[in-house]
Amino acid sequence: MASSNTSKVTGHERVKPRRSHRKSRNGCRVCKSRHMKCDETRPACINCSVAGRTCEYQSSLVSSPKPSLPDTPEANSPAPILCTLRPSPAAISAVSPSHEHGPPVYKAAQLSALDSASLFTLEHFALYNHAKTVLNGTAMPHESPLHTVSVILEYALQGQYLMNQLLAFSALHLAHLHPERTDYPQHATDLQTRALSSFNEAKHDVSEATCIPMFLFSSLLGLHVLHDTLRYRPDNFGAFLEQYMSYMSLHRGVSIITGKSWAIIKISDLKTMIQKVEDTFNTAPDHAHETDVLYTMVNGSHMNDASIDAYHQAIKCVRNCLNFHHALTEQGTQAIDGPMTFCITVNKNYVEFLKQRQPEALVILAFYATMLHCSRDFWIFADGGQYIIQSITSHLGSHWERWLRWPNAVLRGESKI
């Protein structure tokens, strides 16, 4: 995250009165005790790193409330959604110097945590080169895939936050390919932190010059966080849902940018890819008759009319996304846009129902998870869909079993989208 902007004190100013009000309140304990200006780099500030001292922050000793992400951000303010996001705790391994005698010895991944957001190394160049492979496997194979990839790489060269997130995504993919390499997950986390820090410091006015880098940044960040949510799962399903809701709130933030500048994005260098996706979504035949049972479930409940109407909207959304997924599959295209579209376009009331753990909302989530399962070869999703369906089935029990027959049939290979 970005460092605090609190003003700091020079050695000369320490003799002035009321100095306590001018000192950095977020510096490490060692720098404070030695009356030194702390740069506040975490997990170890540069002063402590160079001197080989153990760096300790007050915030690491006293737990603080975790910031929450709003569900539906204001259309003119993307910053609150993305700025409050932190790298997934499950994906973070400690970066601390190991030394018993003499100066500390750092690995490359540890040094990268000390770099500024604008400093790039040969190691980062290798990640940039690998990003071409990642995007070819992640982006939709449209009419001009190489052109689309080159456009994304070109935009990354124009902005620090997009470049850092692209490199983080590249490192995440390498961690998937080489699970024995513990440095790749660390690189992914460090670079994501750098990306968020530089994004926080950037101006967030949505314009023709900024909307496309912001759109690409939000999309890559959403995929990155979804990967961490599905991969680093807690033992408790309730805790997983909390993590998933945080991801969902983040990814819905994409609609802030697209809603305000979609007309610009549609005529940009990405227009071929975007038009292909839009055409497929709008012309997808209605094959998802399995969702008819969801209307029966909701209409037979004791909800008020407003809640029933909100659920009908959510059912229509998941049905459209299932049709979209089916159409992409028929084209021989990697059908990753179906589940991503659901998270962005489903109505706000459904998100609230899901937060409340309403059984009907969980059943709809199981239908959504069939798209994750059917695209499980995509490295971001893996076994996430299977986990969600099985967990919801176990959580709701036998009373809700009949509404979950189709998602479980998909798991068993007895049905398909």
TrEMBL record:
Give the PROSITE patterns listed for this entry: ZN2_CY6_FUNGAL_1, ZN2_CY6_FUNGAL_2
Record carries keyword Nucleus: yes
Q: Which UniProt keywords apply?
A: Nucleus
Where does the record place the region Disordered?
1-26
Residues in Zn(2)-C6 fungal-type domain copies:
27-57
Q: Which InterPro entries match?
A: Fun_TF (IPR021858), Sterol_Uptake_Regulator (IPR053157), Zn2-C6_fun-type_DNA-bd_sf (IPR036864), Zn2Cys6_DnaBD (IPR001138)
Output compositional bias ranges, type Basic residues: 15-26
Q: Does the keyword Cytoplasm apply?
A: no
Alphabetical list of Pfam families matching this protein: Fungal_trans_2, Zn_clus
Extract the PANTHER family matched here: STEROL UPTAKE CONTROL PROTEIN 2, ZN(II)2CYS6 TRANSCRIPTION FACTOR (EUROFUNG)
**Protein name (record):** Sterol uptake control protein 2
Q: What GO MF terms are annotated?
A: DNA-binding transcription activator activity, RNA polymerase II-specific; zinc ion binding
| Organism taxonomic ancestry | Eukaryota, Fungi, Dikarya, Ascomycota, Pezizomycotina
